[in-house]
Amino acid sequence: MIAIIDYDAGNLKSVQKALAFLGEESQATRSPREILAADKIILPGVGAFGESMDQLKKYGLDKVIKEAAAQGTPFLGICLGLQLLFEGSDESSGVEGLHILEGRIRRIPDAPGLKIPHIGWNSLHLEGQGRLFAGIPEGAFVYFVHSYYLKAADEAIVKASTEYGVKIHASVEQGNVFACQFHPEKSSGVGLKILENFARLSPEAQGQA
What we know:
Layout: E1 2-5, H1 12-21, E2 26-29, H2 32-37, E3 40-43, H3 49-58, H4 61-70, E4 75-78, H5 80-84, E5 88-89, E6 103-107, E7 118-123, E8 125-126, E9 141-146, E10 148-152, E11 158-163, E12 167-174, E13 177-180, H6 188-199
Parallel strand pairs: 1-2, 1-3, 3-4, 4-13, 5-6
Antiparallel strand pairs: 6-10, 7-9, 8-11, 11-12, 12-13
């Protein structure tokens, strides 16, 4: 069972639909017991960083997420779900993120001809041997919707990047924790393959974040 964390941040149904297409059983939940008992966990999300951290704390999910990451359960953050795993964001000054991974979320800088938010398809540059990207070709296109981007403290965790006026750390992996700034559930066949790779992680692939 894949638990999809429900903290009123949207985007649950499209993730569930993609997993169902792959034949994977999933459940949207905010129950600590169900989340911690799940085989794998996904933290989706669209919206503002500060408000979403408030929602996680309201339901006590900030502590649950940290416990799940620490116990080695494969964990995937998507879009805002990626951002919340880090230390903080330019979008919400003074608001602390989950601090599961090190780095900050920066605003995409203004530039002539560059539309913000960044909405659309961009190609990925694959870096290292990211387990989410097994079978994915260099330059594959995925779908983004965001105004803020990740700058990871340790570039060794970055497994895919893209360019949009600045180098964007588009996907990271550290131990059992994975995250994508783009939306795999909206990225056609490439995205489905990424979700399939996550869903099929073996116990041997697990490790402490």
